[in-house]
Amino acid sequence: MHDSKYDKRKQLRRRGGAAKKTRPMLNKILRIPFFKICVISVFSVVCIMGITIRRKKIIDPETEIISQRDLSIHNSIYNRIEEMSEFPFFGSSILDVEHYHPLGGGRFSEWKDGNSPYIVSDRVIERSDALARERREHIKNAMKHAWNGYRTEAFGFDEVNPLSGGGNLRWNGLGTTLVDSLDTLWLMDMKDEFYEARDWLKDSLAKGLHEVEENVSTFETTIRSLGGYLAAYDWSGDKIFLDAAKDLGDRLLKAFDSPSGIPWGEINLATGMGQNESWNPHENNIASIGTLQVEFRWLAKVTGEEKYAEKPMKAFHMLEKLKMPDGLYSSAVRNDVDEPHVGSRSGFRTFGGLSDSFYEYMLKLWLQGGKKEAVYRKMYDESIDGLHKSLLKYSEPNGLAYLTKEAVSPPIPSRRTKKGQTLKGQKGRVREVPEMEHLACFAGGMLALGAFTDPKGVDSDRAKRDLKTSKALAYTCYQMYAATKTGLSPESVNGLNKKETIKRQVLRKKRGAKQNKKNDQKLADVIDKKDFFPKNNGRFFLLRPETIETFYYLNKLTGDPIYREWGWEIFKSIEKYCKTPIAYGQYSDVTNEKAGPKDSMESFFLGETLKYLYLLFDPDSPVNFMEKHVFNTEAHPIRMFDAL
Questions:
Q1: How does pLDDT run across 78-100, given as a tens digit for each residue?
Q2: Closest Cα to residue 12, out of 66, 61, 69?
Q3: Sign, Cα dihedral of 256, 261, 265, 271
Q4: 261-311 pLDDT per residue, tens
Q5: N or C end: fewer C-beta atoms under 10 angstroms in the chain?
Q6: Calpha distance 381→362 (Å, rounded)
C-alpha cells in the first residue's frame, strides 16, 4: 500500500511541477481540521463540476480518453486529501487500568454541534472494527467477573453485594439479576452460564417463583423480568422461558384493573391487588404506564392470546389524549378515578426520569409492528417537535446541547369548603428546572434511530434535524463523564442555565437557607463559567447504560469511530473505579478519586450497560435493530413482528 501511494504521488509530480513546490505548505494547512473540511468541500465541488462540464462536451473517443485521464488525476488527489482528513483518534486495545487517568473534559469539540468532522471511509471502518474486536474481549471478561461474583455469592438472589458479599432480595426474590442477564450471556456466547441459569429458573418456577405476597413494581418487573424472559425465549427457543413469561404476564396484567384502566404502580403477584407507590398514592407516571406495551404485545403475538395486549394498549391510547399542545406530556397521571387526567401534584415535562421511556416506546411500537401503525409514529414525531421547541437548550458559555426539565403545576379551580369559605384557585404554570439527568442521555440513541427510520427519508429536513440533535446530545453526555476527575458521570448536572441558577441561589439566600461549601462552590462554578457541575445530591454514578446506549446506536448508524473511543474511555473508568474483588459497585462521588465504590450493583449493569458496551464493540453481532430486532427499554432485543 505504501508503494501504491508513492506511485500516485510520482504521477502527480510529473503532471504538474507546481504541485511539488506547493505540497509542503498544503500539508501544513491540511493538518488543521477546519481547513481539511474546507479544502475537501471546495475541491470536490470544483472537480465534479469541471468533469461534468467536460463530459458533456465529448465529441470523439480521443476526447473521452482525455476525460478519463483527468478523472484519474482527480481521484488520486482526492484520495490523498481523504487520507489526511480521515479519523485520527484511534486508541489501543490495551487495558492498563493501573496507569490509566481520565484526560478531562473539553476534548473533541469538533463534535459539539452535532457534526461529523472526519471522513468515515471503508478503510476507517475496517480499522475501527479490528480494534473493536480486540476490545470486545475485555468487555466479555468484565461480564465474566461480574457473573462469577453473582454466581458464587448470590446465585438466585435479586442482586449481589459487590463489597460485603452475599445477596439481597431488593426485587422481592424474583432472581432479577439472573433473569436480566440471560440474553447478555447468550449474546456473549457464555452458553454454559446461560443454561445453568435456565436450570435454576425451571426449578424455581416449580417452587412458585412468582407467588410473591408482596407488592412489586409493575414497571420494573415488566421491563427486567418479563422482558428478560421474552428475549431469552426468542434467542434460545427454549419453551421454559415462554412458560415463565406467561405465568408472570398473567399476574402483572391485574395491575391494569384500576378504576381508570391506567395501571397501578405496584401489584401483589400472589393476590392481584394493586396500588400506587406510597409516596404518591393517587398517581402513576407516564414512564411506568407507557413502557409496558412492547413486552405485552410481543407476548400476545407469540402465544396468540390477545388478552396480553388489550389492556396495555388501551392504557397507551389513554395517555395520547393527555398530550399538551406542543406534543409533550406531564409525567404525573391521576389513575384512581374513572377518567384519567393530568395529576394534581406537580409533574414534569422531561425526557429524564418518570417520562423517558414513554417517548421511546412511541417509536418502538411503530417499528415493532412493521411501521404500519401510523398513530405511534405520529405521537413520536409530535413529541420530538415539542422537544426541539420547549426542552432543547444550550449551555453557557460553550453551547452544549442539553434537555432541560420543566415543572408542571396543573390549574386548581376555586372551591368552597364545608364552612362556606371560598378557596381561590390557581392557574396552571410551567417553570424551567435547568438540569440534565443521565437518564435523559438515552435520547441521543432514540433520535438517531428515529432519523434513520423517518418515513420522509433520512435526507429530509426533519431527519437531519433529529440526527444533528442526537449527535450534539451524545457529545454533552460524553462530557458529563469526561469532565469529572474519575471519568464517571454524575446522576445529574446543574448550572446549564446561568441566569436561572444564580436566581435560584439568590432566592435561597433570601429565604434564609443555610449556605454550605457545596452551595458556595455552585456559585463559584457559575462565575468560573463552567458549562455544568454535578448536582449536590446527584454526585454518584449508578453504573447506568443510557450514554453507552446512545453511542451504540450512533456508531452502528453512522460508522463514526468516535463513539467507540468515548465508550472505551468510560469502560476504563468503570474498570478503574468501580471494580471490586466480587463484581462492580456504584461509585459514591464522581468528583472524588478516592471515594470508592458502594455495596450495590443493580441488575441493569449486566442486563444493559455491559450488553451495550459489548454490542458497541461487536461488529459481528446478529442483532439488527434496523430490520429485525427492537430493544425494550431494558436492552432486551426481541424480533419485530414481521421477522417472527
A1: 555 555 588 999 999 999 999 99
A2: 69
A3: negative
A4: 999 999 999 999 999 999 999 999 999 999 999 999 999 999 999 999 999
A5: N
A6: 9
Mean pLDDT of 434-442: 96
- Would you state the torsion angle of the CA atoms of residues 358, 363, 368, 369, taken in this order, to the nearest 10 degrees? 110
| CA quadruple 545, 350, 400, 556: dihedral, nearest 10 | 40
CA distance 481 to 408: 29
Say how many C-beta atoms besides its own lie within 10 A of residue 50's C-beta.
Answer: 12
Residue 43 has pLDDT above 60, yes or no: no
The set of catalytic residues is: 220, 356, 491, 546
User: For 580-594, what is each residue's pLDDT tens digit?
Assistant: 999 999 999 999 999
| DSSP secondary structure string for all residues of 49-90 | HHHHHHHHT--SHHHHHHHHHHHHHHHHHHHHHHHHHB----
Please provide the average confidence, as pLDDT, over all residues in the chain.
87
User: At 530, is the pLDDT very low, low, confident or very high (cuts 50, 70, 90)?
Assistant: confident
CA 220 to chain centre: 17
- Pairing state of beta strands 392-394 and 415-416? unpaired
Tell me which residue has cell 392504557: 315
Mean pLDDT of 370-377: 98
Query: Which grid cell sits at 69?
Result: 485521464
- Show the CA angle centred on residue 364, arms to residues 359 and 370, nearest 5°: 145
Q: Report how many helices (DSSP H) and strands (DSSP E) the chain contains, helices first.
A: 24, 20
Kindly report which listed range (14-28, 133-147, 346-360) carries the lowest average pLDDT score.
14-28
Single out the residue of 114, 104, 181 nearest to residue 485, CA to CA. Answer: 104
Name the pTM for this structure. 0.86
The pLDDT tens digits of the residues spanning 105-125 come to 999 999 999 999 999 999 999
User: What's the whole-number mean pLDDT along residues 509-529?
Assistant: 59
Beta-sheet pairing, 215-217 with 266-268: antiparallel
157: left (phi over 0), alpha (psi -120 to 50) or beta: beta
CA 578 to chain centre: 21
Q: 182 near 194, Cβ under 8 Å?
A: yes
Rounded to the nearest 10 degrees, the angle between the axes of helix 546-558 and helix 562-577 is: 150
Q: Which three cell numbers stand for residue 346?
A: 406537580
Secondary structure element (H or E) that encloses residue 135, with its range: helix 122-154
Q: Could you tell me the three cell numbers for 275?
A: 396500588
Would residue 173 be called left, alpha or beta, if left means φ above 0 and alpha means ψ between -120 and 50 degrees? left
